[in-house]
C-alpha cells in the first residue's frame, strides 16, 4: 500500500502519538519511514524581529537549534528501526515555513503519505496561531493522515 511514509515531529507529546501511528503503519504495510523535524532559522538582526547578535553568537545559536532538531529526528528513526521498520531515515529541514518544509521534504524523499499531529485549536486560537497541519492539508499533493 504505502512504500515511504513521512512523519513530521517536533518532539512534543502530541507529535509522539503521530510518530507511534506512523511506525505502526510502516510496520503494517512494510513501508520505509522518514522522520522530519524543521529547525527554525533564527532571525539575525533588529529588522528580522530579534536582538542584534554578533556573528559568532548567531552561528552558535543556530547550530544549537539544528542539533536539537537532529536529535528529535534521530530518536524517531532509532525507535522505528528498533521496532522492526525495514528502513528509516532522519531529516532536518532548515526553514521558518514549517508546512512548506514538510511538503518539500515529502516530495524530495519520494514519500507517498505524510503523517502529522494536529493540536485541534478552534476559533480565535486557530486564527491567531494558524495551523501548520491545515497548511499541509491544503497545499500538499501527497495524502496526509492527521492525528489528534
Automatic annotation (TrEMBL):
State the family named in the UniProt similarity comment for this chain: Belongs to the universal stress protein A family.
Name the Pfam families for this protein: Usp (PF00582)
Q: What InterPro entries has UniProt attached to this entry? A: Rossmann-like_a/b/a_fold, Universal_stress_UspA, UspA
> The UspA domain covers which part of the protein?
1-148
Query: Which superkingdom heads the taxonomic lineage of this protein's source?
Result: Bacteria
Kindly provide the name given to this protein in its UniProt entry: Universal stress protein
Q: Which organism is it from?
A: Acidovorax cavernicola
Amino acid at each position: 500500500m504505502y512504500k515511504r511514509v513521512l512523519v513530521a515531529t517536533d518532539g512534543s507529546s502530541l507529535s509522539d502519538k503521530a510518530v507511534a501511528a506512523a511506525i505502526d503503519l510502516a510496520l503494517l504495510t512494510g513501508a520505509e519511514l522518514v522522520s522530519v523535524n524543521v529547525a527554525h532559522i533564527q532571525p539575525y538582526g533588529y529588522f528580522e524581529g530579534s536582538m542584534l547578535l554578533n556573528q559568532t553568537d548567531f552561528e552558535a545559536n543556530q547550530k544549537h537549534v539544528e542539533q536539537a532538531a537532529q536529535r528529535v529526528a534521530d530518536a524517531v528513526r532509532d525507535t522505528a528501526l528498533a521496532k522492526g521498520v525495514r528502513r528509516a531515515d532522519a531529516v532536518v529541514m532548515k526553514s521558518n515555513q514549517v508546512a512548506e518544509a514538510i511538503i518539500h521534504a515529502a516530495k524530495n524523499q519520494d514519500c507517498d503519505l505524510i503523517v502529522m499531529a494536529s493540536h485541534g485549536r478552534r476559533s480565535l486560537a486557530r486564527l491567531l496561531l494558524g495551523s501548520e497541519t491545515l497548511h499541509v492539508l491544503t497545499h500538499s499533493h501527497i495524502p496526509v493522515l492527521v492525528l489528534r
